[in-house]
Amino acid sequence: MKTVEEIKILLHKNKLRLHQELLQSKEAMHLIRKATHSHLTEEEKLKIRIQMLDICKAIPAFTVFMLPGGALLLPLLIKLIPDILPSAFRDDPPVKKE
Predict the structure, then answer these.
(1) Residue 13 is part of which domain span?
(2) In the prediction, which pLDDT does 13 show?
(3) How many CA atoms lie within 13 A of 2 on its CB side?
(4) Same domain? 12 vs 26
(5) Do 30 and 59 belong to one domain?
(6) Nearest to 82 by CA among 57, 53, 52
(7) How far is CA 11 from CA 8, 65, 73, 95, in A?
(8) Residue-wise over 57-69: b if at least 16 C-beta within 10 A, else e?
(9) What is the pTM assigned to this prediction?
(10) Beta strand segments in the chain, E
(11) Which pLDDT does position 98 carry in this prediction?
(12) How confident is the model over 23-75, as pLDDT tens digits?
């Protein structure tokens, strides 16, 4: 069983990961808007492509989590298929003590 401090650290890490994913999505939306009236560089196109793949990966993970018993099934699924998580959730964010 995890201690309260370990659980707090895990929650904080996931909060940082979610924040990172939201920032990346916001940047992608800005680039998509920009693409409607000007050309994008190859780097900008790559950023949009990566973010769209991350969004497509998040939907099945969220769906599994919402199923009955999904909270238990999702960690097992992540162990079997590690690429199911968006990129922000694969990298460990730096943990800041508040």
Answers:
(1) 1-38
(2) 83
(3) 8
(4) yes
(5) no
(6) 57
(7) 5, 16, 19, 11
(8) bbeebeebeeeee
(9) 0.61
(10) none
(11) 47
(12) 888 888 898 899 899 998 999 999 889 888 888 877 777 787 788 887 777 77
Helical residues (DSSP H) of 1-98, grouped into ranges: 4-35, 42-66, 70-80, 87-90
Amino acid making up residue 14:
N
| Number of domains composing the chain | 2
Greater confidence (36 vs 94) lies with 36
Give yes or no for a contact between 92 and 13, defined as CB atoms under 8 angstroms apart: yes
Structure tokens at 52: 């769209």
Q: Which tokens hold the place of 34?
A: 């920009």
Structural element, H or E, at residue 2: none
Contact 17, 93 (CB under 8 A): yes
Q: 67 phi and psi, to 5 degrees? A: -70, 155
| Angle of the 4-35 helix axis to the 42-66 helix axis, nearest 10 | 130
Q: Is residue 98 part of a domain?
A: no
Per-residue tokens: 72: 């238990």
The first and second tokens of residue 14, run together, are 């996931």
Examine the domain organization and report whether 30 and 48 are in the same domain. Answer: no
